[in-house]
Amino acid sequence: MKRCLGSIVLCLCWVALCYSQDAQQINQDASKGTKVSFSVTLEKGLDSRKLKAGDPVTCLTAGTLHGRNGLLIPSGSRVLGHVTQAQARAKGDAISTLGIEFDKIQVKGKELAMVGTLQAIAPGLSNSGPNVGPAESGSLSGGGRGDQGYSAGTTAGPTAPIQVSGPSGDTRPVNTASTGVLGIKNLEMDANGLITSPGKQVRLDNGTQMVVRAEIQMPVQ
Questions:
Q1: End-to-end alpha-carbon separation of the chain, Å?
Q2: pLDDT confidence tier of residue 98, bands split at 50, 70 and 90
Q3: For residue 91, how far is the Cα from the chain centroid?
Q4: How many CA atoms, within 13 angstroms, populate the side-chain half-sphere of residue 84?
Q5: What string of DSSP letters covers 76-97?
Q6: Which residues of 6-30 are buried (b: 16+ CB within 10 A; e: fewer)?
Q7: Greatest extent of the chain over all pairs of C-alpha atoms, in Å
Q8: d(CA 201, CA 139)
Q9: Which residues neighbour 121 within 8 Å (Cβ) at sequence distance 6 or greater?
Q10: Which end of the chain has less neighbouring CB within 10 Å, N or C?
Q11: Which residue, among 44, 51, 131, has the nearest Cα to 87 in the 3D structure?
């Protein structure tokens, strides 16, 4: 009898230890954040001549983000960020610049902290004009720097921490594997998401499509 009770106590201790380790791992994963790439549209146009570091940037998610822990970030959720640098080309300068970082996503009145940078930009679906050109062949699947460790839209496996889905029949020229500047003339973007132009300013119109590469602090459910 004593031997049986001892075995039960040992077993319970082992279960408690495993649970504690699992909970600790979940908390560690949550503190590290979950990495994902997702599409957004710019809610208000940006012009580097009129901006300064710290000015707000607001976008809307163009697809739905599904968290493995049950979290749902609907399409149209606000993504908030800020300008990190903005410079118009002055006399003697070779380029104008615009840098953006993203800080949080608003979900049902709450805000999820995130650290996000630009991965790709493309003209809005309704935009046309002298700075808009055709996307280069292969742009739909990226073709720039790699995206290792990040979700690639609906190709993410069912065990991915976050899956991204877009509207049915979507005709956007970018997806979450796209990189760089697609279909906008006279703009370039470096590996850190800094946008540059040989023109007098960097201008992004309202509705500009973007892909954000982010690390989101997912709440523990």
A1: 41
A2: very high
A3: 35
A4: 14
A5: T-EEEEEEEEEEPPPTT-S-EE
A6: eeeeeeeeeeeeeeeeeeeeeeeee
A7: 91
A8: 25
A9: 174, 181, 182, 184, 187, 189, 195, 204, 208, 209, 210, 211
A10: N
A11: 51
pLDDT at 130: 45
Residue whose pair of structure tokens reads 């031997």 in the numeric block: 3
- Which residue, chain included where needed, has tokens 């380790």? 21
d(CA 97, CA 165): 32
- Report the distance separating Cα 83 and Cα 95, nearest Å: 17
Summarised one tens digit per residue, pLDDT across range 157-199 is: 334 677 887 665 455 668 889 999 999 999 999 999 999 999 9
User: How many CB atoms within 10 Å of residue 175?
Assistant: 24
Number of H helices, E strands in the chain: 1, 14
**pLDDT tens, position by position, 106-145:** 998 899 999 999 999 999 987 544 455 444 323 322 333 3
If 0-12 CB within 10 Å is exposed, 13-18 middle and 19+ buried, where does residue 90 land?
A: exposed
Q: pLDDT (tens digit, 9 = 90+) per residue, 5-25? A: 555 545 444 444 444 443 333
Task: Specify the pairing of strand 96-107 against strand 78-87.
Answer: antiparallel
What is the C-alpha to C-alpha distance for residues 25 and 192, in angstroms, rounded to an integer? 30
